[in-house]
Write a structure and sequence with these properties.
about 400 residues, alpha/beta, six-stranded parallel beta sheet, 15 helices, 11 strands, about 40% helix, globular, binds NADP nicotinamide-adenine-dinucleotide phosphate
C-alpha cells in the first residue's frame, strides 16, 4: 500500500495572521499575476501588494504600479541596468520583513532564485510556477524544512489535490489522479500534427494562460511537469500518481484513498479560484467565481491518456524517477524548445523529441546543488539550441 507522507501539506498561515496580508508578487504582468491583482483589488481588506515584479515589460508593470502606488515595482531585466543588481533588489523585496506571503508566478526557471531567497527568509509561498519544483524540488524541500516555510499550490490540479487532502490522515491515500484536458489536439489526426501552426497550438479549448504553459498543454508536457510537482508537493512516489484525460476541465484532480473512496474537486476553469484559495488559506473568500452548473453541463467524461499522442508525460516521469539534475535538464530543454517553436524556429512535433534528446544524452548529477541545477539548465538549453529539432549535433556531456 502506498504511504503518502504529505511532508509539504501546509497546516495554516503562521500566526499572527495580519490583515491585509501583504504580498510580494513575482510575475505581476502575466496571466496569473493579473488575476492576483484582480483579487487584491476585489478584497483590499484581505490583501495588499507590497512588491510587484516582472521581467521586461516596463509599461505593463507601470500600469500595475499605477493601480497599486503602495507597492515597490521592480523589473528583473531592466534595459541598461546591471542584471545582478536587479536580482539582488528582487531577493531583498521578497525577503522584506513586511512581506507575509510571496506569490511566485514568474515564467519558468527565472523564478527559482527569488523563490529560494524567499524560503531562506522563512516566507510562505503561493506557488504557480511549477518549474521551480521540477528543477530543484529537493533543494526547495530542504530550504522549507530548514526555515519552516510552507508552499500553498496555485496550479489548479494541485489545489484540487490539496483540498481533497484537507482533514485526511497520513497513510490514508492510495494514489493521486491528475486530470488534463488533452489541449487543442486531443482529437486531431496524429499525421496532421506535423503541420500545427503557432496559432493552433496557442488556442487552448478551456484555459486562457500565458504562451509557454499553453504550448506545454498542447504537448501535455505541462501534465508531466505537474506529476513532478505533485511528487515534491505531496511527497508521493511517482508510481502513485496517475494522469487521465478529462476534456471538460471541471474535475480539477482527484485523490483515491485506501478504502476505495475517491474525492474530487470541481470548479469552472477559472484560475481566480485556486489563486484565492492559496492567498486566503485557511479561509475561503466569498464569491470568487460561479460554481459549475452540472445539470447544464450534462456530462463529464474521462478517458485514458494516449501515450503515443502525448509522449511528454512518460518522458517527464522518467526524468523525475532518475532524479538529481535530470528534471532540471527536462525543464530547461522544454523551455528552450517551446521558445524556439514560438519564434517559428522549430516545428510543434519537434518539441518533445528535442527534450528527449537532451534528457537522454545528459549525464545528470545525482546530488542536487544550486550550481548543478544552473549548470544542467545552461547545458540543456545549449543542447536544444544546437540541435536541429530531431537530431542533435552536440556531443558534449553535461559538465561535472
Ligand atoms: N496562466 C495560468 O493559467 C497558469 C495555470 C497554472 C500554472 N501556471 C504557471 O504560472 C507561471 C506563470 O504563468 P503565466 O501563464 O502567468 O505566464 P505569463 O503570462 O507568460 O507571465 C509570466 C510573467 O513572468 C514575468 N517574468 C518573466 N521573467 C521574469 C523574471 N526574471 N523575474 C520576474 N518575473 C519575470 C513576466 O514579466 P514580463 O511581462 O515583463 O515578461 C510575466 O509577468 C508558469 O510557471 C505557469 O506554468 C499558469
Amino acid at each position: 500500500m502506498t504511504q503518502v507522507r504529505r511532508a509539504f501539506q501546509p497546516k495554516e498561515m503562521r500566526s499572527p495572521r495580519p490583515s491585509p496580508r501583504r504580498l510580494a508578487l513575482l510575475g505581476a504582468t502575466g496571466s496569473i499575476g493579473r488575476q492576483v491583482c484582480d483579487l487584491v483589488e476585489r478584497h483590499p481588506e484581505r490583501f495588499a501588494l507590497h512588491a510587484v515584479i516582472a521581467g521586461t515589460d516596463a509599461a505593463g508593470l507601470e500600469a500595475v504600479a499605477h493601480r497599486h502606488p503602495e507597492a515597490h515595482a521592480l523589473l528583473a531585466n531592466p534595459g541598461g541596468t546591471d542584471a545582478s543588481r536587479a536580482a539582488r533588489a528582487i531577493d531583498e523585496a521578497v525577503s522584506d520583513p513586511d512581506v507575509d506571503l510571496v506569490v511566485v508566478a514568474a515564467a519558468g526557471a527565472a523564478a527559482l532564485a527569488p523563490t529560494l531567497a524567499a524560503l531562506d527568509a522563512g516566507k510562505d509561498i503561493a506557488l504557480a510556477t511549477k518549474e521551480v519544483l521540477v528543477m530543484a524540488g529537493e533543494l526547495v524541500r530542504d530550504r522549507m524544512r530548514r526555515h519552516g516555510s510552507q508552499i500553498f499550490p496555485i496550479d489548479s490540479e494541485h489545489s484540487a489535490i490539496w483540498q481533497c487532502l484537507w482533514g485526511e490522515k497520513e497513510g490514508a491515500v492510495r494514489r493521486l489522479i491528475l486530470t488534463g484536458s488533452g489541449g487543442p489536439f486531443l482529437r486531431r489526426p496524429l499525421e496532421t500534427l506535423e503541420s500545427v501552426t503557432i496559432a493552433e497550438a496557442l488556442a487552448h479549448p478551456r484555459w486562457k494562460m500565458g504562451p509557454k504553459i499553453t504550448i506545454d498543454s498542447a504537448t501535455m508536457m505541462n501534465k508531466g511537469l505537474e506529476v513532478i510537482e505533485a511528487h515534491f508537493l505531496f511527497d508521493v512516489p511517482y508510481s502513485a500518481i496517475d494522469v487521465i484525460i478529462h476534456p471538460q476541465s471541471v474535475v480539477h484532480s482527484m485523490v483515491e484513498f485506501v478504502d476505495g473512496s475517491v474525492k474530487a474537486q470541481l470548479g469552472i476553469p477559472d484560475m481566480h479560484l485556486p489563486i484565492a484559495i492559496a492567498l486566503g488559506f485557511p479561509e475561503r473568500l466569498d464569491g470568487v467565481t460561479t460554481a459549475p452548473d452540472l445539470a447544464a453541463l450534462g456530462q463529464l467524461s474521462f478517458e485514458p491518456l494516449d501515450a503515443i499522442r502525448y509522449p511528454a508525460v512518460a518522458l517527464a516521469c522518467e526524468a523525475g524517477e532518475r532524479g538529481g539534475t535530470a528534471p532540471a535538464v527536462l525543464n530547461a530543454a522544454n523551455e528552450e524548445a517551446v521558445a524556439l517553436f514560438l519564434k517559428g524556429q522549430r516545428r510543434f512535433v519537434e518539441i518533445v523529441p528535442s527534450v528527449r534528446q537532451a534528457v537522454e544524452s545528459a549525464e545528470p548529477d545525482e546530488e542536487l546543488t544550486l550550481d548543478a541545477v544552473i549548470a544542467a539548465d545552461r547545458w540543456a538549453r545549449a543542447q536544444v539550441r544546437a540541435s536541429s529539432g530531431g537530431t542533435s549535433r552536440v556531443r558534449s556531456k553535461l559538465p561535472a
